[in-house]
Write a structure and sequence with these properties.
Structural class: alpha/beta
Distance between the termini: 34 Å
Strand content: 15-25%
Largest sheet: 6 strands, mixed
Shape: globular
CATH architecture of one domain: 3-Layer(aba) Sandwich
Number of helices: 19
Number of strands: 15
Bound molecules: pyridoxal-5'-phosphate
CATH topology of one domain: Rossmann fold
Radius of gyration: 21 Å
Length: 462
């Protein structure tokens, strides 16, 4: 399998190269040159099988000859061994015809672990074999950074530096970044906000001398390997509810469009999905796109579901590429308009194709809180605010309840303040991390200054 850029101007790469590169050199995102197909018999055969076996079967066609079958099975086993649930991504019933897919049983209690744990093992395997070493630098508003630190802690071929805005992440998020003890992971508390962290990250990648000197690599949500890991649980959950003999719909709390794009990939591969429902909070660029046919940036308004507070959904470019018949020139034009003029209108054909696959909805702050409360009352479930956005939007689609699966993207204990404000109950951490608040923290506070940050990274690599 080869990977091509959505902008059509960068060389095609193997899976391994696309994974290690991240963003394409023409500014585009890598996508597979075709969608592998699974037959109804193959899908039916997933019923009752362990998560790892389904993961192998679903991802194998994308990986090409980057790993042997035996290597790839080992990578998958190691990736999910640390999950706190034997099913890895279990399904729980909320109401008749409505189910929650729990994606928060990994080490940092959010769905980012599902992809990051796998990517950690894949990077390690691929780098060790070629004798290379890379430095991963990331910027986080909370969930991605902690998932990356947990995934790469203790690996041999990678150093990890995560910049987060000092004083602006939740205590649980901070402790998940500052309490791992492995010497190759570093939490950097930057004196600035999340945009400052992201801007310094971009500066580092644009400084080509620095980039080459430290072997800079990224694992942000545009990395194809992350999307791929997320395709698996659409299969395991749909099959548990009767696919391929019965259709299912999914509602996905959406920020960067990575998770719901994985659902679209599952559908392209042959999984009979009825509707894919995009659920946004008040930062609703995607919902507005579905309604108006215009994709237009607005400022970000902070919400109680902070992992979905985005202005631009970077993975949406991958979908545009498909609905514009994979014409890189058309995508380049749209993306130039997005950065230059702040938006663009989709063609009528593109709008029709978008609406044929996707439905959308949004939840305000009040609706999110009310849904947390109502879900506790109706089903005795405490849900995180991101999941509540999904439940609220799913409830507005009764005709798509064939059944409906809403993705539960984080554990409620990761966002205890919002949950307590809505219900009066403070959610407990799972027993395996109940001592998080007693563990020693290790972090370095640094100014919002490129030279200081680069010096720290250069001096603290192994
Ligand atoms: C990242 C995240 C999301 C949004 O996922 P995307 O793939 O960016 O659309 C939703 N909920 C939680 C808890 C997250 O961490």
């Amino acid at each position: 399998m080869r990977y091509i850029s959505t902008r059509g101007q960068a060389p095609a790469l193997s899976f391994e190269e696309a994974m290690l590169t991240g963003l394409a050199r023409d500014g585009g995102l890598y996508v597979p040159e075709s969608w592998p197909q699974l037959s109804a018999e193959q899908i039916a055969d997933f019923a009752g099988r362990p998560y790892e076996e389904v993961a192998f079967a679903v991802m194998r066609p994308f990986v090409g000859d980057t790993f042997s079958d035996e290597e790839f099975r080992g990578i998958i086993q190691r990736a999910y061994a640390g999950f706190g649930h034997a099913a890895r991504c279990p399904l729980k019933q909320l109401e008749p015809g409505h189910f929650l897919l729990e994606l928060f049983h990994g080490p940092t209690l959010a769905f980012k672990d599902v992809a990051m744990q796998l990517i950690g093992q894949m990077f390690e395997h691929s780098l060790k074999r070629s004798g290379r070493r890379v430095t991963i630098v990331g910027a986080t508003s909370g969930d991605t950074g902690s998932a990356a630190i947990e995934a790469f802690a203790g690996l041999d071929a990678v150093d990890v530096f995560i910049m987060y805005p000092h004083g602006r992440v939740s205590e649980v998020q901070r402790r998940q970044m500052t309490t791992p003890t492995a010497p190759n992971v570093h939490a950097l508390a930057v004196e600035g906000d999340f945009d400052d962290c992201q801007a310094r990250l971009k500066d580092m990648f644009n400084d080509h001398d620095f980039r080459d000197a430290v072997g800079l690599a990224g694992v942000n949500s545009i990395n194809w390997a992350r999307v791929l890991a997320q395709v698996v649980y659409f299969f395991t959950s749909a099959v548990a509810l009767g696919a391929p003999h019965r259709k299912v719909s999914f509602t996905v709390p959406t920020g960067n469009f990575g998770d719901i794009f994985a659902g679209y990939v599952a559908k392209r591969m042959g999984l009979p999905i009825d509707r894919l429902v995009i659920a946004t909070n008040q930062n609703d660029i995607l919902h507005r796109t579905l309604v108006t046919g215009r994709h237009e940036k607005e400022g970000v308004t902070p919400s109680i579901s902070p992992s979905m507070d985005i202005q631009v959904s970077s993975n949406f470019e991958r979908l545009l590429f498909d609905i514009y018949d994979r014409e890189g020139a058309a995508i380049t034009q749209l993306m130039t308009a997005l950065s230059g003029e702040g938006g663009f209108a989709l063609s009528q054909g593109a709008v029709d194709r978008l609406r044929a696959e996707f439905t959308s909805g949004r939840a305000s702050e009040e609706e999110t809180s009310a849904t947390i409360k109502a879900t506790l009352a109706a089903s005795a479930e405490l849900v995180c605010p991101h999941t509540a956005v999904g439940i609220k939007v799913a409830d507005e689609q009764p005709e798509s309840r064939v059944p409906m699966i809403t993705l539960a993207t984080a554990h409620p204990a990761k966002f205890p303040d919002a949950v307590e404000a809505a219900t009066g109950l403070r959610p407990d951490l799972p027993p395996r991390m109940a001592d998080l608040f007693e563990r020693d923290e290790r972090l370095t506070r640094l100014p919002n200054d490129l030279a200081a940050l680069q010096a720290f990274v250069a001096q603290n690599r192994a």
